[in-house]
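Chain A, query sequence.
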Amino acid sequence: MKHSVDITQCPKCAAKELGRGKHAGYAAIYPINKMSLGSEVEHIICIECGFIIESYVKKPEKFKGTIF
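Chain A, predicted structure.
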């Protein structure tokens, strides 16, 4: 996944070591009013303070047609 901004440090504590994690299974995001299995959610996380800097769905195409 290409991020819109290059993230180099935590905006909360200024640490420079960041990690990646994901929600999966029952923690997936599901489209409203559409039958779909949903998508995993991935996060960029500060490994010093635990702040979740950015979150995004791994398969954004599953949300086509759900625009409000």
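The longest strand covers residues 18-23. Residues 22-63 form one domain.
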